[in-house]
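The pair is quoted verbatim underneath.

:::
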Amino acid sequence: MLDIIRAVGLFAVTNVDDIVLLAVFFARGVPPWKVVLGQYLGFTAILVVAVTAALGATLLPTTVLPWLGLLPLALGVKAAWQAWRGVTTTTRRRPARWAWRR
């Protein structure tokens, strides 16, 4: 029973930022049906990914599982490095000028 209470408490604490974002969207005048639909679709997508990852982790040897925590850390370090260097995913490469000349 204590585990269930902890899980509910952790779920509530980690969703404080979600409540703030929802308040911002409602305050900006976004139609309520879009906010609610987006909330449900986003939560469902996260839940599907989490359940899939948990089921996939059961296929791995138990000695590998603790190392999976390094994956989000590596992704965060990579994103920080790219932000520090000024690299964005939206920058487009222009074709070389010589390719268009004949």
Summary: The helical segments are 2-14, 16-27, 32-57, 70-85, 97-100. The mean pLDDT is 85. Residues 70 and 92 are 30 Å apart (CA to CA).
